[in-house]
Amino acid sequence: MIGLLIAQIILSIVLACIFLFRPSVTVTAGWKIVAFIGLFALPALCIVGGMNAHVQRSEQTSFCISCHVMGPYGRSLYIDDAKFIPAQHFQNHRVPADMACISCHADYSLYGTLFDKLRGLKRIYFQYVSTPPDPGSIRIPGGFKNGQCLHCHLGARSFQENPVHSAVMDTLTSNQLSCLTCHDMVHDIANLSHDKFWSPAQ
Fold first, then answer.
1. DSSP state of 79
2. What is the pLDDT averaged over residues 172-188?
3. Cβ atoms 32, 41 nearer than 8 A
4. Could you point out which of 6, 35, 102, 119 has its C-alpha 20 to 30 Å from the C-alpha of 78?
């Protein structure tokens, strides 16, 4: 994908240079078509391809935690304690390890991931242009919705047949009772210096 994108960019530059230094070649119909492709169609494909590549990259765990302010959240994925929900999901591959952040933090509504990415752009702005917030002050706009958990867990036998879950299923699916009411051990970035960490085998 990246190789094709680079080839398109190089071809666009070569064609643009030809038409810049030899505009007379566009006299014939064939060269006019080539000029249209080189000056409009190929750059448009480069823009779409580049955006697609960056959107896919933005879903990677490594991208999310590359910002200084998100580093402690990435570190918390290695807390060696079964009570910490993000760490257990990450370490046991209950979510894809290379997409751990978006797996749990994406809003799975119709335009949820698009709005999540737009909010992410705001964080990138703060990282490079303004003052990044304190890691402990970062909150999910609108709070953590149960749909982000139920997207995977709803329908899973171990979840459905758990008597604690089945007793409150209606309030969980309607978001009246938060999953975090019981599963409240999340990233705990304030206490990372006191936590024990898991080191994956190399």
1. B
2. 92
3. no
4. 119
Calculate ∠ Cα 187-191-192, nearest 5°. 70
- Tokens 């990044």 correspond to 132
DSSP string over 53-88: HHHHHTTSHHHHTTSGGGHHHHHHTTB--TT-HHHH
CB 19 within 8 A of CB 39: yes
Residues found in the chain: 202
Q: Residues 102-156: pLDDT tens digits?
A: 898 888 776 667 777 777 777 777 777 877 777 777 777 778 889 889 999 999 9
Coil, strand, or helix at residue 197? strand
pTM across the whole model: 0.73
- Residue 35, both tokens: 């000029």
Q: How far is CA 89 from CA 49, 65, 80, 83, 181, in A?
A: 32, 17, 12, 11, 18
Q: CB under 8 Å to 68, separation ≥6 — which residues?
A: 127, 132
Closest-CA residue to 40 (of 75, 7, 15, 68): 15
Query: For 102-117, what is the HEC assignment?
Result: HHHHCCCCCCHHHHHH
